[in-house]
C-alpha cells in the first residue's frame, strides 16, 4: 500500500470574482502520510478553508495536482468526485450538518445509501454499531434537535466513518462546542488516529491543534510552517475504534 | 434505492403536512374533475343505450324520404294494410313484429271524472318486446287485434285517477275513435318502470292518462299510413339488421316503382350511434377543459418544490458532501414531486368515484367507471409531478456543495 495518502504539487487556487482575481492558495506542496494526525492552522483568510474544500474534493484547484490515495483528483469531473467524497473522505463539520428531520441512525446511513453496496439491514446494523462506538447506543432513534452539541458531533463522527474512508477531514470540529465536549471530540479523533485513520483537523485554536502530531500553518494562501508536535496533549487511551482500520499503525 | 427514495420523499412530505395537502389539492381537483366528467359521460352514454335497449335495438321504421319535395310525393308512397301484411309474410322469418306505429288520444269518462288519455296501438306480441307489468287483467290478444275489438289497458295512475283504484279491469266507457263512437272495455291495468331521468328525457306528461289498445283500432282495412314499424328478430347482429333494412328498401322500391334512396329508414341502431358520438364529443371537450386544472395543479407542485429546494439547500449540500451524485439528488426531488402528485391523483380519483356513484344513485342510474382508471389516474398524475418537478429537481441537483453547505 502506498505510504502517502495526500500529495499536493504546486497547488494553486485562484478566485475569479470578475473585477479582481484573488489568490486563495499559492503553490502549495505537501505530503501527508497514511495514519498521520495533522492540524491545518491559520487565521480566517489564510487559505485554510480553501484548502479544506480542495482536500475534501468539494472544490477543484485552479492549477497543480492533488493526489488522494494515488489518484489525481484535480483531473476528475464532478460526477467522479462525488464517488471520491463518498468512499475516501469522512467529513466532520463545525455546525455538525446533520439532517434535522432524520434520526441519528438514518443520518449515519446516508453515506452508505449513496455507496449503493449494502442492503438496508446491513446499513442499519453498521450505523448502530458505529453509534455504539461513539457512545450513543441509547440515542440511535433520537433526532439531532433532541441531542446536545457534543452528541451531535459524535453522530457526525459516526457518519464520517460509515464507509470506512482513509481520510477523516474535520473543519473546526470543536468550534460550536463547550470545553468538555471539545475534549471528548478530540479524544475521539486521537482514538481514530490510533486505530490507523488519517485525520486532518482544520482549526484556528492552538489548544485543539495541540492534540495532533503535526501542525501546518497557513497565511495569505501560503504554507508558512510545517512543525512536528513532539508532545501532543495527552488523552485517555481510548481503544473504541480498535480494529476498524485494518493495517492501521501506531505512528506517533 | 427507489424504495429508499420513496421513504425519504414520504418523510419530507410528512414533515410539511399542511403544505403537502394544499399542494395536492390542485391535483386532487384536476384529476377529480377529469375523472368525474369522463365517468358522468360514460354513465350518460350507458343510460342512453339502456334507454334504446328498452325501445329495442332491432327496432326500425320505413317511410318515404321526409326530405323529398312535397310535389314528388305520390299517393302510392303511402302504405296500405295489404302491403303491411304482405311485407310481414315476405320477411316473416326475420321479423319479430310489425305495425304502423299508430297513436292518438281518447277521452275516458267515469261519472264526473274525465281524463284525456294518450293511447298507443300495438299488436299482441309487443308485450314480449316491450314488456309492461300487468297488475290485473290481461294484455292485448291476437283476437283483439284481428277483430278490432274496443279493448284497452290503462296505466296504474290512469286507473287511480279515474276510478280511485288500480282494480279497473272490467269497467266500461264510451269514446270516439277514428270517427266512430265505441264502447270500450278495460281489460287490464299495467305499470311501466322508468327511472326519474328517463321520465325527464321522454317528457312524459303526468296530466294525461296512458293506455294501450289494439293497433287495428286505428286502422280500418282501407286505411293508409306513412310508415311501417318493424322489429328484427331479437339477437340479430348490427350487420344482419342493416342487411334487412336494405332488403326492405329494395322490396318497397320494386312494388312502388321507386329508387331505394327514395326511402328513409329510421333505426334505433343509427340513433344510438349518433347519440354515442355526441356524448363522446361532449365528454372529450369538457374533459379537456377540466384537464386545464391539472395544469394549474402541476404548476402548484412546481412552485412548492422550488420552495422546498430553497429551504433544503443545506441538506442538498450535506448529501452532496456525503457522496450524493447529481443524479441522486435529481431522483430524490423527482420522487418527491411524483409522489406528491400521485397521492393527489389517488385521492382525486377516489373522491370522483365516490361523488359520481352518489350522484348516479340519486338519479337511479347504474354508474359506469372504467376499470383501471385508478391506475391510469395515479400514473398520469405521477407523470404530471415528474414533468413539473424536473425544473426544481434540476435546480437542486446543480447546487454547488460549498455554497449549499454554508447556506443558512
TrEMBL record, chain A:
<keyword id="KW-0813">Transport</keyword>
<dbReference type="Pfam" id="PF00005">
    <property type="entry name" value="ABC_tran"/>
</dbReference>
<keyword id="KW-0067">ATP-binding</keyword>
<dbReference type="InterPro" id="IPR017911">
    <property type="entry name" value="MacB-like_ATP-bd"/>
</dbReference>
<feature type="domain" description="ABC transporter">
    <location>
        <begin position="6"/>
        <end position="245"/>
    </location>
</feature>
<dbReference type="InterPro" id="IPR003439">
    <property type="entry name" value="ABC_transporter-like_ATP-bd"/>
</dbReference>
<keyword id="KW-0378">Hydrolase</keyword>
<dbReference type="GO" id="GO:0016887">
    <property type="term" value="F:ATP hydrolysis activity"/>
</dbReference>
<protein>
    <submittedName>
        <fullName>ABC transporter, ATP-binding protein</fullName>
        <ecNumber>3.6.3.28</ecNumber>
    </submittedName>
</protein>
<dbReference type="GO" id="GO:0098796">
    <property type="term" value="C:membrane protein complex"/>
</dbReference>
<dbReference type="GO" id="GO:0022857">
    <property type="term" value="F:transmembrane transporter activity"/>
</dbReference>
<dbReference type="GO" id="GO:0005524">
    <property type="term" value="F:ATP binding"/>
</dbReference>
<dbReference type="InterPro" id="IPR003593">
    <property type="entry name" value="AAA+_ATPase"/>
</dbReference>
<dbReference type="InterPro" id="IPR017871">
    <property type="entry name" value="ABC_transporter-like_CS"/>
</dbReference>
<dbReference type="InterPro" id="IPR027417">
    <property type="entry name" value="P-loop_NTPase"/>
</dbReference>
<comment type="similarity">
    <text>Belongs to the ABC transporter superfamily.</text>
</comment>
<keyword id="KW-0547">Nucleotide-binding</keyword>
Automatic annotation (TrEMBL), chain B:
<keyword id="KW-0472">Membrane</keyword>
<feature type="transmembrane region" description="Helical">
    <location>
        <begin position="338"/>
        <end position="365"/>
    </location>
</feature>
<feature type="transmembrane region" description="Helical">
    <location>
        <begin position="372"/>
        <end position="391"/>
    </location>
</feature>
<dbReference type="InterPro" id="IPR003838">
    <property type="entry name" value="ABC3_permease_C"/>
</dbReference>
<protein>
    <submittedName>
        <fullName>Putative ABC transport system permease protein</fullName>
    </submittedName>
</protein>
<dbReference type="InterPro" id="IPR025857">
    <property type="entry name" value="MacB_PCD"/>
</dbReference>
<feature type="transmembrane region" description="Helical">
    <location>
        <begin position="282"/>
        <end position="306"/>
    </location>
</feature>
<comment type="similarity">
    <text>Belongs to the ABC-4 integral membrane protein family.</text>
</comment>
<dbReference type="GO" id="GO:0022857">
    <property type="term" value="F:transmembrane transporter activity"/>
</dbReference>
<keyword id="KW-1003">Cell membrane</keyword>
<dbReference type="Pfam" id="PF02687">
    <property type="entry name" value="FtsX"/>
</dbReference>
<dbReference type="GO" id="GO:0005886">
    <property type="term" value="C:plasma membrane"/>
</dbReference>
<feature type="domain" description="ABC3 transporter permease C-terminal">
    <location>
        <begin position="289"/>
        <end position="401"/>
    </location>
</feature>
<dbReference type="Pfam" id="PF12704">
    <property type="entry name" value="MacB_PCD"/>
</dbReference>
<keyword id="KW-1133">Transmembrane helix</keyword>
<feature type="transmembrane region" description="Helical">
    <location>
        <begin position="20"/>
        <end position="40"/>
    </location>
</feature>
<dbReference type="InterPro" id="IPR050250">
    <property type="entry name" value="Macrolide_Exporter_MacB"/>
</dbReference>
<feature type="domain" description="MacB-like periplasmic core">
    <location>
        <begin position="20"/>
        <end position="220"/>
    </location>
</feature>
<keyword id="KW-0812">Transmembrane</keyword>
